[in-house]
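Hi R.,

As promised, here are both runs. First protein below:
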Amino acid sequence: MVVQDHSEGMSDEMKNTDEHEGTRLLTRMEIAGLAGVTRAAVTTWERRAADFPAPRRTSGQDYFLETEVLGWLDGRRVPTHRRTKGEDEFITYGVRARRRRASGSAPAQPQPAFLLPAGPGAREDLGPRDAEIVGNLMGPLAERVGGPDREVAYLNLLAALHFLHVTQPLSWKEVKDYATFNGDRRSSSDLLRLVGSKTDEALRAMGSLPETRDALVRLEPRRFEDIVEAVRLVGLLSPRAFQLIVEGYEEKARLGSREFFTPQPVAQLMAGLGLAARNTSAASAYDPYFRGGELLGAAVDMSVRAVSGNALDGAVLPRLLGQTPKRATLPLASMSLALRGARFALQLRAGGRPWERVWPPEPVDLVLTNPPFNMKDSLQETTRTGTWRYGAPPVGNDNFAYPQYALSVLAEGGRAAVVMPNKAGNSGNAAEEAIRRAMVEQGVVECVVALPDKLFSGTSVPVCVWLLRHPADSGDDVLFLDARDLGAVQRGGRRVLAGDDVRSVLDTYRALSGRGVVDLRDFPATAVPGCRVGREALHDAGYSLNPIDHMGGPAQRAIGQESRAPETAWTEVSSLTARCRQMEERTSQLQTRLNPDRVRRAPRRSATLAELCDIQLGPSHALLAPKHRIPDGAVPVVSPKHIRDGRVSDTIDERVSWERAARLVPYRLEPGDIVCVRAGAMGPPAMVTGSQAGWLMSSNVIRLRCREGSGGLPDYLHAALGLPEAVGWVRDRAAATAAPFITKAALGRQEVLLPPLDVQAEIAALLALLQERAAVHRELSTALTHAKGLVLRQLSGMSSSSPSTV
């Protein structure tokens, strides 16, 4: 069938509309409205045409990407009996749809008003009270609105309110009017639905799946007035405060290693390296595992700065592409990018790894990613399915899968910046060493930057940034930069890079990445240590890509010999000491409020676990056998070895596919669940956190889920069951069998003394604070040990360092 090109007959208005549309998501009814057919006709097309666009399903509703729909309709000529006045024999449904959109005869979706990006280092644009307001939002209000372990939903609420306030004035007015209306029929659930629906309307118009409403209805606010207070406070924030909300949330939630966001300065460093290496703007940027959209947002910010020196005139923003398996943070990423005025296409990946499907459709200029890595050593050297240009990664370890995938989707001249564990740089695994050798020999590794520790909230694993180049731009050496001494330790023990730190790394990269000789006398004093290592030297070093192996001593450092480690170490000690004092004050306040006499006088009742909880045994071996665990599985499985010190480990190496997990719904874990060892070494039970929602329990695990109205709080029950006498009670009953094994009936008979709910809540809060306080003291002990080593080194070389720094 020959389809006539009608573009010449389109009006300028229609051409403009067609150019800027396409990213929206459409329902079947909206497709019917555009094409001028019935909804039944759309259903018939979908059923009979194998090439009809695939829907994206969420919240029980299917959505279709407009670009795909229009492309399919372009190939369908309108039959004679279906044509309307003015339509000729060559008219297609695609042309009709564009005309109806341009003329306004099809219902238009709301278009968000975008806020252009401020670029990096824009904290000067924040209001004077922004930090204080965000602090209030992340204080007790977060617990009153979010309920137990609902941090992600609460973050989405704040982000949605800020997004509506900045970009959707009419929707924001509706939210404020409902919140301040004095009628009697107001409800928390209706206000949350209103916020979620208005946000989803705006995001869907941009092609983002509407996930916000479903996220917000999970909240459990105690009072309607608490949500009203959140609306009021968000309305006081300046337009640039979005990043403060994300950072405040991350500090409060203490996300696990697979959930944490990439700190904004690290994201800017990665995007800056990629753009500096290209020495030109990027038309597209891609993140195959976007978290909160921070790396894609940094691609926009740094593009603005690189093109126009932080002035917005003439800035060309890259088109942003991303995939994620995390449904919970999809709305957050969409709002973050929308606030920057970027064009984006974010996909929710139902399962598998990004290299298992063909996407994005075209090569990209810039890949930025901070993927989750499996740090488990594998003794298997067998390959996995897929095409691996530099060698197949070992089974069960993705460390060298993501960088190879990033290289495979690059356009010529493109660059990829990938966060990699230091361990990957000199791993002794034969398969990984072979991949490093191939990447070095083929010249695709351009630069490796060693980052400071404690940059990320969810992991202490030291990491580097690997800058990779398209094979067509291969080189003969690798530039190593040592940025481990940059940054300052702030409240919470996190190390934070300043804008000057990011600039120092980028300036050093620009100076040392050229082929000419660098005159160190003219080099800025703020430069970080760096050196270029040729291919022969890399061969002699076993193809190590760990900067420490090439820059271990002062003689090996080309520039920046003076280390900032002493000052940083004492800053860290001071920060942790101050934090210990703050936590001591908080403990005293809680102890005063939780008067011992009042606690002792509080009435108590005895209840068995069977009365308080639904007790669920793990699945049978037939449902979840060892053969069902796969290296590329998407859903973690909690086994007894993962239950340690009252917590569920976040580094789980056993996973199953989405398909297998769908058959095991009764065995899913939810925030607030308590998991115990069923067979094996009995210890204190663990509490499931919000970031572990949807994980599965193995056959040797028992789940306790507090019944609503039972009179027991999960946090208190978890603490009570962790007491030595409670653990001993379980061990005694388990030891009565041939092998340590606790039955459901026996566990259900265990008794717990319950004070009133308010006393339970106060006791649980004090215990959580004491646990956090103990962790901070351990950090302080480690910092003091580090400082002690620095003092010893200073005493052994008095001529090069003044004792006044001690």
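And here is the second one, sequence first, then its structure tokens:
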Amino acid sequence: MAIRLSGMTSGLDTDSIVKAMVSSYTTRKEKYQKAQTKLEWTQDAWKSLNTKVYSLYSNISNLRFSTAYNLKKTSVSDTTKATVKAGSGAPSGTQSLKIKQMAKAGYMTGAEIKADSEKTTLAQLGYTGGDAKLEVKMGEETKSITLSASSTMNDVVKELRNAGLDANYDSSYKRFYISSKKTGVANDFTITGSNIDGASALYSLGIAYGGEKTTAGTYSSNPYDEYAALHGVSDDETRAKIEAAVTSYNNLTTDAAKMNAQSKNLMNAVNYGYSYATLQGIYEKLDANNAGDSDKLKLLEKLGASRDGSLILKNCDSYDTYTKTTLTDTKGNTLYKYIDSDNNSHYIAAVADTDKNTTSYYDVTESTRIAYTDAEGKALEAVPTVVGDTLTVGDKTYKKDETDGRYYLQKDGTADKTDFITVSQKTEYTIAADAENKTGIESASAAYDTIIKSMDEKTKSSYDEALASVQAFEASKDEVLGSDDEFSVASLTKAIQNAYAGKDKDGGTITVSGKEAVEQLLAGNGNEDDGFVNKANALEKDAEDNTKKAADSNIVKELASKQKDSAEYTQALNDLLDRVNTAYTLKNKALFNSQVKKVAGQDSEIELNGVKYTGDSNSYSINGLTIEALAETGDNAISITTSTDTQGVYDKVKDFLTEYNNIINEMTKLYNADSAGSYEPLTDDEKDQMSDKEIEKWETKIKDSLLRRDSTLGSVMTAMQTAMMSSVEIGGKKYSLSSFGISTLGFLNAAENEQNAYHIDGDEDDANTSGKTDKLMAAINDDPDMVMQFMQQLSTNLYSAIGDKMKSTDLSSAFTIYNDKQMKTEYTNYTKTIKEWEKKISDREDYYYNKFTQMESAMTKLNSTQSSISSYFS
């Protein structure tokens, strides 16, 4: 903006005059600014409320399923032996537990040495060697340590700790105390020398352990024996023995992996088999009531989450699926696409009749034309004349630029880069004039809901569990087994489905079919060893045996992991060769401390209901129980008693109602808010005349009223309230919240804006209802399954009601209860309008300032002339 100097001659306050002259423009701009500010506050209010509603929506999602209410509590007959927590899957009843063995960490107490303090060096202990190479092995991990004659006891402790052990030197008793950080055999440790000096240093430190000394003067657990066993009379023979061990190790681990995979599939197939039979029975029951429902349901199952936005149309005995697209026809109607078996795309248009609140569907034709758009992306009104690489529009000539394909306006032979035409192929979709309304089209989501709602609660629960199990198994992939393996997912799936259809694994007819045939297949047809469970257990045992055999040759594991004939393999083989040769030397020359004591790492072992379990810790998670072993029981069993946690179920219902109440109360308050009357957002000038407290009070008055009597808010509230007031039929009897002593207080008794909140009779935390009879807890104690079923269905109704309000539309995004898209567009339009008015104000100001400048200039000249004339008379 140019510098404005005015009023210097006339003495007028030009700025004030101009400001007054454009005040009507400024008022219009401020009007839009206030409207935009109010819209922004409204967006913020909706965002805050939407976050809370979505949180409720997410939380009640889990409440639709029985697992949310399968809360358990448990007690142990002897809490000094074990503690137990019960998860939702834990069976009710009493179980027997024996703790046969506690897990222990490996622990070493060193022999007494002559180190008076932590600063004593190895040299002072009589060590005279050079670099002492040590190896600390924990499970499958090995770390190297290097000590020297100048290393102190503190240095040794530090190196052992860095290697992953707990270590300490006690100068009072002149011993090292070393242990592994975790319990279990797999976490035990050994410390050995990698060279003669290393073995000598360990002896000087009093931690050279070789087991108990025998009467023959040897040691029972010489740590160098394992590597030394691979030693041959020559390096070539040693290499051959090492490679033979690698081959054996690979065969054992490969076979173990295969058998473990087979065992896992068989165990999973048992659950799949029963679930598959249950699911087929439900399909048959559906078809008995309405033929073809099972085929429709199977299609809808495959669609899964994509049911939203999809349509289905019966085509003979199957269904065509139309998926919603972002395309529209020439009149703006949304298109749905179906891809046939030949991979051809077909489209239908959804034509909405807003007056009748209906939608009709018509086939559309697809055509392609040349589209011409200007530099702003707008279609040209007139079709250009095309001659070669030149376009002519009126008296303008455009020429094609091969680098970007655009046609630029030509001026004196030069391209004007600001004015161009883009030529493209545009695909259009048109409803034929004689197109007939396609009948029989269904919303995939609605069709699915209709079928699901036709099931009783028990069938619905069985269906959900069976479908989830079936889909999980059929979707699982074999990473070890080939598809042709007898126990691959594909093979087991086919075998179970064949059995249900009355066929053997090769497709031949058998005497039974259906659920009975599947159960016979799983049980072994009279021979238990052929049953899936026994086969799985046998394979698991064989895999365990192979794994143990492979562990006996674990020293070649690293070498076995490398590609044979690679440089890495050759290097690793040579390194192992050196280690074997060193171990062979140390086996015969290393000295061991006879006083050192070592407690081996030990796995825990328990028996639950007579079944043995082992682990490297004292914690177990078995069939919904989390068991923490504290002490051995020997052969004396302790009992674990599990039952339904009625208080937990009560608290689950109460927590749900509390969250619902908080949100519905806030909605009610927003909807019933006092009117802000003529209050409008303040301009900067208006704020300058008020204190911060006055501004805050003013704006709060407006913000509190933004959603007052809002139709969208009212619609959401009504949907939620209707869902909560709905009745649920269980076992032929209808129940509602009031059946369990849960109701609102009503307009006369409730606090302001809390008339829609629910209260539980007998709730000790609720002053309004604490004195009434607690029907909810009584119902839970009497029939917890019935209460759970009711809450599942009620949660489902509320979840669906909120979900319907959160569906994506042209005005709102998915999972949003308000028209966020529309508001965003309005906000952008306000920004554009405000800028336009700012430009108008600036233009008008420039106009008036220019006029005043001309007046000032004229007055300056007049004054100069008058001065000149006056000089003649002076």
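A quick note on the second one: Residues 329-439 form one domain. Let me know what you think.

Best,
J.
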